[in-house]
C-alpha cells in the first residue's frame, strides 16, 4: 500500500486540531497535531503522537510536560504556523500557568505531565497525566480529507 492511500483513508476520520506546547529554558515550542485522544477517566490520561523528526520530542522528553491546546475556528492561522505551513515567522504571545506555556483563546488547554511514552514506528506516543484544564466557549477548527473546515461551512454544504 502506498503512503497516499493510507493518508487518504486516515483523512476520512474527521478530527479537531490541537497545538501541543512545551517549553525548555524559557523557549516555547509549538507543534500542530490532530493525533490526540482521551484515554482514561480514572486516572485522567490523554494521548498524543509525535513524529520522530519533530523538534517537539526533545523538549517533551527533557521537561516531562506538555499542554494540548484545542483550537477554535478562529485559530486556523495558528494551526498553519505551528505546522510550518506559513512562509513568514510570527511572534506568538503565550500565557503561563505553573510553568506551562498555553495558547490564549483556545477552546481548551489541557496541562499534562508525561506518564509514559512508547515508540511506535516513526512516531512516539506520549500518554499525558492531566494536571489542570481551562476552557472557553466557541466552535472548533476541524480537519477532514487534508483540509481545514468549520462547523458553519459544513452546515452550508462546504
Ligand atoms: P517545527 O517544524 O520546528 O515547528 C513548526 C513551526 O512552528 C515552525 O514554522 C516554527 O517556526 C513554528 N514555531 C514553533 N514554536 C514557535 C514559537 N514559540 N513561536 C512562533 N512560532 C513557533 N505531526 C505529528 O507528529 N503528529 C500529529 O498529530 C500531527 N498532526 C497534524 C495535523 C495537522 C492538521 C497538520 C497540518 C499537521 C500535523 N502534523 C502532525 C505535522 C506537524 O505539525 C509538522 O510536521 C510540524 O512542523 C512538526 O513540528 P516540529 O516540532 O518539527 O516543529
Ligand atoms: P494528509 O492528507 O497528509 O493527512 C490526512 C491524515 O493522514 C491525517 O489526519 C493523519 O491521520 C494521517 N497522516 C498524515 N501524515 C501522517 C504521518 N506522517 N504519520 C501518521 N499519520 C499521518 O494531510 P496534509 O494536509 O497533507 O497534512 C499536512 C502535513 O501534516 C503533511 O506533511 C502530513 O504528513 C502532516 N501530518 C502529520 C500527522 C501525523 O504525523 N500524525 C497528522 C496529520 C498531518
Automatic annotation (TrEMBL):
Domain of life the protein comes from: Bacteria
Q: State the Pfam families in the record.
A: Flavin_Reduct
Q: Name one GO biological process term.
A: pyrimidine nucleobase catabolic process
Q: Does the keyword Oxidoreductase apply?
A: yes
* Keyword field: Oxidoreductase
Q: Name one GO molecular function term.
A: FMN binding
- Asked whether the keyword Magnesium is assigned, the reply is no
Q: Which PANTHER family match?
A: FLAVIN REDUCTASE, FMN REDUCTASE (NADH) RUTF
Put simply, this protein is called: Flavin reductase (DIM6/NTAB) family NADH-FMN oxidoreductase RutF
Upper taxonomic classification of the species?
Bacteria, Bacillati, Bacillota, Bacilli, Bacillales
